Structure prediction request, 92 residues.
Amino acid sequence: MSRIPDALTRVRRDAEDDEPQQRPLEFRLFARIFRYAEPYRAKRNWLIATTVLRAIQLPALGWAMGAVINGPVARGDVRGTVYGALGFLALA
Prediction:
């Protein structure tokens, strides 16, 4: 009959001797990627632009939803709620 271990993980006390698990970000790597992607400049630039726009869009959608709920929905304004929903749809 085998003995069940007390713990499933083992804690190491000599952690200061370990190598770092993550290397710092090297900006030279970005320069290399941009050099390799030079033949695809237009596609690369569109990808960067859409990524930045999406990063702006997500918080804006949350803010717009909160503004519509705290504004026209809280006041019971049906017309304002419809306009807010249309504005949200346009932003999305």
